[in-house]
Model the fold of this input.
Amino acid sequence: MTTDTLPEATSCAAATETPISTWQMRRWPDTRDTRIPAWIYSDPSLFAREMEVFHDGPGWNFVGLECEIEAVGAFKRSWIGPRSVIMVRGEDDHIHVLENRCAHRGSQLCWENKGVVKDFTCPYHHWNYDLEGNLLGLPFFRGAMGKGGMPRDFQKSEHGLRKLRVATLGGIVWASFSDEAPSLEDYLGEEIHSLVLRATGGGKKKLRLLGYNRQLLPCNWKLYLENSRDPYHATLLHSFFLTFGLLRTDTAFKAVPTIGGRHGIMASTYSATTAGQQNEVTKQLANLKTDFKLEDMEVVKPVDEMGDSAMINFSVLPSVFFQQHGNSLALRHLVPKSASQTELSWTHYGFDDDDEAMNRRRLKQANLMGPAGYVAIDDSEVLARMQPVAESAPESVQVVTMGGVDHAPQDTMLTETLIRGFYSYYREKMGL
Ligand SMILES: [Fe+2]
Done:
């Protein structure tokens, strides 16, 4: 081929331009955050961009609990968005978070959820890594019978697993793919930072793992994130809450978006004395069952272990919801799999100084949560039915004006301020 037959430089340049995705051609239906377009729940190219911005981007993701990996070599497989990571206790006794992807051909290295190992070996070509992710060796490094093998200049030190930034707070492990993420403390902000400490024993206690639930939700991850920032639905959808008094619309409540809507706090007080009672507020609630009784009231009767008579639940973007329902403490890990599928992984915990009675109470109250929980099952059902509606009518629009049009803190459950706050933050980061 001569230079005359080479294609023109201009056509090469055109071929490398980034194609415009469907979502980039769409417009948000309102200049404010009181409308949500349905197309954000089903577009695969938008989903890919969300993962880049929020999960791989300059923030911190929940990975697991320190108490899940106490011995050297103990590991837990976890997820940051659709990407798998391994949280492992190294020989140095520090916690390392490694991308679960062999540096050779990109195979998933670790296929088990938990265990204890001396090192990691990829099932595909047996490349072997230490607990800190360094490549120790690979089969036929120098070939065999004088043939094959790696080039002489191949440096094992350049082919380790990808190592993530790691931070811990209150016994909880967080990781980030991004070098640009601020410190965990700054990312969480003052309010969430202190709530993480409150939920984990104020830095004085050690967490104790109580168990797991996992479920696959057939819906977009944002539908669940909205649900976890939506106090308005709590006593309407969840008749169990209302009927047995763990959460009522007539109790003191605070909804507080923080850092421009990045995170969201819902704080309420327990109302045992009004359980089952009718008043001006509950008259509007069709789901209050005044003739229902529980055989065992311990399921809904908390002990005020934090000393402030409050139940504080909060959502930390992008991946975790801190749950305090009575004495049921859990972290709900939100793991987006695709635009239309999300895994929800619950880690239930208590403290290592819990007595037997508290342990029993936590386990009983955990029955409200999880895939078949007396309360949580309602959310899964509703969200599973929302997704096909959103997919079938992508141009349709949702309205979130309960409690106003801005995202200021409010002291009522009858508000969508946390959802508006999230979308204000989301739109800014996504450029929508
Ligand atoms: Fe709910």
